[in-house]
Amino acid sequence: MSWKIWSLKKSPWVFHVNTGACNNCDIEIVNLLTPKFDVERFGIKLVGSPRHADALLVTGVVTRQAAPRLQEVYRQTSKPCVVFAIGACACDKGIFHNGYHVVGPVDKIIKEIDPNAIIAYVPGCPPKPEAMISGVVKALSTL
Amino acid sequence: MTEVLQNLFWILIFPGFLFTACFGLIACWIVRKVSALVQWRVGPPFYQPFVDVIKLMGKEILVPQQAQRTVFLTAPLVGLAGLLLLSTMLWRITIEPTVPFVGDVIVAIYLMALPSLALILGSSASASPHAAVGTSREMKLVMSYELPLVMAFIVVIIKSGGQLSLATLAQQTPALSISGMLAFLVSLLCIQAKLGFVPFDIAEAETELGSGVLMEYSGALLAVWKLIQAMMLVAMPLFLVIMFLGGFGTSGMSLVWGICKYVLILVLMILIKNTNPRVRIDQAMKFFWIYCGIVLAVAILLATIGDCYGINWL
Fold first, then answer.
1. pLDDT greater than 90 at residue B224
2. How many CB pairs under 8 A join A and B?
3. What is the pLDDT of residues A3-30, one digit of tens each?
4. Beta A102-104 vs A62-63: how paired, if at all?
5. Which residue of B has its CA nearest to A7?
6. Most CB atoms closer than 10 Å: which of A72, A75, B53, B90?
7. In this complex, do A48 and B222 lie within 8 Å of one another by their Cβ atoms?
8. B184: part of which helix (H) or strand (E)?
9. Contact predicate B137/B202, CB 8 Å
10. Yes or no, beta carbons of A8 and B55 under 8 Å apart
11. ipTM confidence score
12. Where are the beta strands (DSSP E) in chain B?
C-alpha cells in the first residue's frame, strides 16, 4: 500500500454538500461529530472548503439548480477523493423520483464529468450514524 | 565550509525545521486532544497531525484560474522561511546564550509578522471572494494586535533597563511584577489572535467563510500552511517564555521547569480557545486598541515609575 493511500485512510477530511436534502441526513451527519460517535478519533474532520476535502458527503436528491453546483464542487475537490451518497434520496432519488425538479441521483451527475469517480452509497432515510461509519470504512478499504 | 554546514544543520535539522515541526505537530495534537477532552470526546491519536500533513503532501495542488500564480505559490514558502528563522533564532538563544546580537528582539518582532503577511499576500492572490473577506479581516486583525504586542514587549524592555537582547531579557522574570503580569496577559491574548485561535479566528471562520484565508489552498501548499501553524504553536509561546517567564533552561531541572512554562502557556491558550465564542472584527479591534491599550498604558507607566525609583514589584 502506498503512503498516499495509507495516509488518506488515516485522515479523511470531509466536506458536506447539500443538494436539496430535507435536512434530516444533515442532522445525522452532524451527529457523527458529537461526543457519542466522535469520528475525530479516526482522523475524520469536517472542513469548510472542497479544496481541503478528501471525501464529499452529498445529501439529498439532486435538483436541477443543484446539479451544476455539485459538478463544480466535485471539480474543485483535490483528487484523489471519494464521493459519498448519503441517504435514500442521494442514492436513488428516494420518494422524489417523479419530481419535476429532480435531475438524477448523485452518481449519475458525478459520472457525467468523471466516469471513474469513486462513489459510495449509504442508504437509509436517514441513515444511522453507525451505517455512515460503516460506509466510510467499506469505501476506504476498497481504495 | 564546516561553518556553512553547521549553520545549515541548525536551520534545517536540530533547533530549526525538523525539530520545531515535530514539536509543533505534537503541540497541535495536544491542542486537539485537550479540546476534545473539554468537549467530553476522546480525540485523535497522537500521530494525527503528522498523518494530516503527509496526506496533504500526496494530494493534488489546484490553482484557481484567475489567481496570481507566482504570489499564490510562493506566499506559503515566504511565511515558512520567516518562521524558520524566528524559531531557529529563539532555540539557538535558549541553547547557547552567547551567540545573540544586540537588537535581536526587534528582528524577532519583525519575523513574527512575516507569516501573517504571507497569509494576507497568498489569500489575496487567490481571487476568491471568500478569501478576500478573510484577507480584509486578517489585515484588520494584524493591525489591531501588533500595537498591543509591541507595547507589551516595551514594558519588558523598560523593566530590564533598556536591554534589547533576548539572552539578557531571558535572565529575568518580569511576569512576577504588576506591570509585567499585565503585559503578559495582554500578550497572551495577542498570541491567541496571531495563531488564529477561537475568540480571534475571525479570518478563518469555518462556519461563515468556509476557511477564509486558506480557502483556495490545497495539497502540498495547504500542508505548508499547516506546518506554519504548527511551528507558530512552538515559536510564539517560546517567545513569551523568553520575554516574560525567565527563559528556557537546557540542563536538568531548568529544562523541566522550562517545559512546564511552555505547557502552562499552551494550556492557557487552549482553555481560552474552548471557553469563548468567536468575536466580530470590530469587537476585536475595540478590544485590542481600547481595552488592551489602556491596560498597557497603565503597565508602561508602572514600569517606568518602578524603573526610576528602583521598585521591582511594580
1. yes
2. 80
3. 888 888 888 899 999 998 889 989 998 8
4. antiparallel
5. B55
6. B90
7. no
8. helix B178-195
9. yes
10. yes
11. 0.88
12. none
Contacts B36 to A, Cβ<8 Å? 38, 40
- Specify the amino acid at residue A22: C
Fold of domain A3-141: Rossmann fold (3.40.50)
Name A82's bridge partners: A55, A118
What number is the average pLDDT over the span B161-188?
Answer: 87
pTM of the entire structure?
Answer: 0.91
The residues that bridge with B119 in the sheet, in sequence order, are none
Do B44 and A54 count as a contact with CB atoms less than 8 A apart?
no
Contact A46, A19 (CB under 8 A): no
- Going from N- to C-terminal start, the domains of chain B cover 2-309
Q: A72 in contact with B at a CB cutoff of 8 Å?
A: no
Burial class (CB in 10 A: 0-12, 13-18, 19+), B183: buried
Burial (CB count within 10 angstroms: exposed 0-12, middle 13-18, buried 19+), residue B223: buried
Decide if A69 contacts A108 (C-beta within 8 A). no
* C-beta atoms surrounding B107 within 10 Å: 15
Q: CB of A36 within 8 Å of any CB in chain B?
A: no
- In chain A, residues with a C-beta closer than 8 Å to the C-beta of B67 are none
Instruction: Decide if A40 and B36 are in contact by the 8 Å CB cutoff.
Output: yes
Residue B243 near residue B150, CB atoms below 8 Å: no
The 10s digit of each residue's pLDDT in B237-283 is: 999 998 888 877 777 788 888 889 999 999 999 999 989 888 888 99
Q: How far is CA A115 from CA A103, A119, B199, in A?
A: 18, 10, 44
Handedness of CA B267, B188, B230, B207 (dihedral sign): positive
